[in-house]
Design brief:
The structure holds two protein chains of two kinds. Chain A is mainly alpha-helical. Chain A is built from six helices and two strands, in the order αααββααα. Chain B is an alpha+beta fold. Chain B has helices spanning about 5-20, 20-30, 55-60, 65-75, 95-100, 110-115, 130, 160, 200-205, 210-215, 230-240; strands spanning about 50-55, 90-95, 115-120, 140, 145-150, 170, 195, 220-225, 240-245, 255-259. Chain B is elongated, with a radius of gyration of 27 Å. The chains are: A mainly alpha, B alpha+beta.
Chain lengths: ~130, ~260
């Protein structure tokens, strides 16, 4: 191999640069940063188990939307037999009244920034858009 | 101590049965503590065919009353842009001759000529807006109410072109800054969607009459089930002559103007 020394040094510099994001975050220490959504409520249960809500709340919201708009039904029987009014603002946001600390934290983290919901539905007082 | 095969199965079976006691109680014994947060909502009003009747005489007697318009536009967060080009209207007043262009009599009673009547979406039985909507955002419910699914509307305005009554308005601009008192219980609209009167479907599910009907102090508005022969609206239509807007177009409007 011609110019082995230069090539190897060049490769080493290349490797250091290309792995920069990995060791930089490791060095800074917030590589394991996870969002911490806050819930302010005294209610113990949601309309579905937490695991389901965390992963699939968007599906439930779509289902609720179709139920209300297309089928005109506003009553939802939850997994534990409780009955809830299907209403984003009056039901969901009664417990999750802090959109900025609840919705936005994960949504910003996962870069699904602003879902269209809040273009029309009114977020609880004090949160703005 | 040894245990024979038969005894072992017997004990194992009983033990399994025992394990089922607690879950069994949880499933069958929970009848009492079920929470129903919708209890306060009231029983939803339902009908086979919702329709509205307006007592025109009664309405005219109120002169410049705008209670129904204000109530409707307040509960539905209808913006006021302050110029007719961008105007959004669910319920408004139209001069009699413009609302009923087919009713051109040479000698109309004087007060009719000059007076204005409340007009809004007719929730037609054969709604042209539903037929032209390319995304099925506008649709007719089983109870006859025609509404727009704002989630699905793409803002093409075909429905506005199709509606012969001008009942639909388009949001050319973001309506939020132009709503004086936003009612958080009802969503606003966003830029680029079409909106109109919904016969207050959100109130019907809570057991409430439409906002305009409730707001009318003169009881000029009657809302009810056209398929129910015993309903108030059917009684009214049996006793008195009613006309509809542009019946010749075949849209079958379900808003009746009692003369």
């Amino acid at each position: 191999m011609y110019d082995a020394g230069k090539v190897i040094i060049g490769l080493a510099i290349f490797l250091v640069l290309i792995t920069f994001p990995v060791w930089y975050t490791a060095a800074i220490g917030n590589a394991s940063y996870v969002p911490d959504p806050q819930i302010v409520t005294t209610a113990r249960t949601c309309v579905a188990p937490t695991v389901y809500m965390r992963a699939s709340h968007m599906e439930l919201l779509n289902q609720w939307r179709n139920e209300v708009v297309r089928r005109g039904s506003r009553r939802y029987t939850a997994f534990d037999g409780t009955v809830h009014e299907i209403n984003l603002v009056n039901t969901c946001m009664r417990c999750h009244s802090n959109k900025a600390e609840f919705c936005d934290r994960c949504h910003n983290y996962a870069a699904v920034g602003q879902p269209d919901c809040w273009n029309c539905h009114v977020a609880p007082e004090g949160d703005g858009r | 101590m040894s245990i024979d095969r038969r005894t072992f199965f017997r004990i194992a079976g009983l033990a399994t049965l025992g394990l089922a006691i607690k879950p069994g109680f949880e499933v069958f014994g929970q009848g009492e503590d079920v929470v129903d947060s919708t209890a306060a909502m009231g029983r939803p009003l339902s009908a086979k065919r919702w329709a509205m009747a307006i007592d025109v005489r009664c309405c005219l007697d109120q002169k410049d009353c705008r209670k129904c318009i204000l109530a409707c536009h307040q509960v539905h967060n209808v913006p006021d842009f302050g110029n007719p080009k961008d105007e959004i209207k669910w319920l408004w007043k139209e001069p009699f001759d413009r609302a009923f262009p087919e009713q051109e009599f040479q000698h109309l009673p004087e007060d009719f000529e000059r007076q204005v009547v409340p007009v809004f979406c007719n929730h037609c039985d054969s709604p042209p807006c539903v037929r032209v909507c390319p995304v099925q955002a506008t649709f007719q419910r089983d109870d006859g109410i025609v509404i727009t699914d704002q989630h699905r509307c793409i803002g093409c305005r075909y429905c506005m072109a199709a509606c012969p009554y001008g009942s639909r308005s388009f949001n050319w601009r973001d309506p939020r800054p132009f709503i004086k008192n936003i009612d958080p219980k009802y969503p606003t609209r966003t830029r680029g969607v079409v909106e109109k009167c919904t016969f207050c479907v959100e109130r019907l599910t809570q057991g409430l009459m439409p906002a305009c009907v409730e707001a009318c102090a003169a009881h000029a508005l009657t809302f009810g089930d056209l398929e129910d022969a015993g309903s108030e609206i059917r009684g009214l239509l049996r006793r008195r002559l009613a006309i509809r807007r542009k019946p010749g177009l075949g849209t079958n409007p379900e808003v009746y103007y009692i003369i």
